[in-house]
Amino acid sequence: MERIKFAIIGLGRIGPRHASHILKHPKGLLSAVCDIDESKRSLFPDTPFFTNYKELLAANTAEVISVCSPNYLHAAMCIHCLQTGHHTICEKPMAISTKDCELMISAALDAQRHLFVVKQNRYNPPVAEVKRLLEENILGKVYQVSINCFWNRNEKYYTSSDWKGSKEKDGGCLYTQCSHFVDIMYFLFGNIKCHAGLVKNAGHQDLVEFEDSGTFVLESEEGALINFNFSTCTFAQNMEGSITIIAEKGTVKIGGQYLNTIDYQKIDNYEIADLKDGALCNDYGDYKGSMSNHDKVIENVIATIGGTAKNATNGFQGMKVVEIIESMYKVSAKR
Ligand SMILES: NC(=O)c1ccc[n+]([C@@H]2O[C@H](COP(=O)([O-])OP(=O)(O)OC[C@H]3O[C@@H](n4cnc5c(N)ncnc54)[C@H](O)[C@@H]3O)[C@@H](O)[C@H]2O)c1
Fold it and tell me: Has residue 305 got a pLDDT over 70?
């Protein structure tokens, strides 16, 4: 069986998770890794290691490159990967401006290579089930939606990083923590208009250059009212990642800490039951992230390249999320 060769750029928190799923997949092969931090060489002692990603690309050892570097590097790195003929996986957020997303999509089209953007929460069993209920009109018209991301990002999270908390390199909480929730909002309800918003730095004044709390009023293209609240200030731990949908034929709350449970439901002649347990969350020791469905991402990449699936989350979808985030920041900046 011919295996697909992958390389990874960036071996911090998330890069090694890409590696573990590539290594576990029967059709995956990890052919090279890269990090500017020489100490990361020891993570994969048997795999060729590069400190310069352009040298890795020039060595042409892989068909697919996973870009797991800080947010501000995604655009330039992905464009270079695509222009050198590599299918490219970009960690979320796709970039920190719509303009950069456009350049990335153009590069993929010109090179005729796939650009995959990581949106692993779409695979959470409750999210996938609610998507199906919406598509099959089991919930009917959506009237109102409430989204809460109440997480904890502590001092160490920011002080141990040279990019997290920087406006220029990180972008803000909507890009780094909330882009999962903005993506699910777009995935379930389509285009979104932001009417009003307020952001504030309530508890991280000396740590981050942007807000740590926000509240927004939005509307879906079909007219559902949406409120979106986030905070990275919950005491000591993540508390909630939820989406409540009030619709014509049912009310359902996807909840838990990271959109991993059905907290309640009442649906006309229907009950969501027997959902798969799903993956655990990404546990980084000092803090916890989203549901760890990167195995499904790697599976989709391999199946797409093998011609048996389509790219589940392409550059266009990645760009839509960035566009919504930009609109939320634009509205809140006017206050
Ligand atoms: N999908 C998810 O759930 C998820 C979870 C965590 C992080 N992420 C995303 O993954 C990306 C990385 O996040 P992280 O938490 O792993 O960050 P991190 O800071 O822990 O890791 C980034 C790594 O990139 C390396 N790096 C920096 N500049 C480089 C360069 N020029 N060339 C090669 N390597 C370079 C750093 O040395 C570091 O090891 C971010 O965009 C983040 O938003 C996604």
Answer: yes
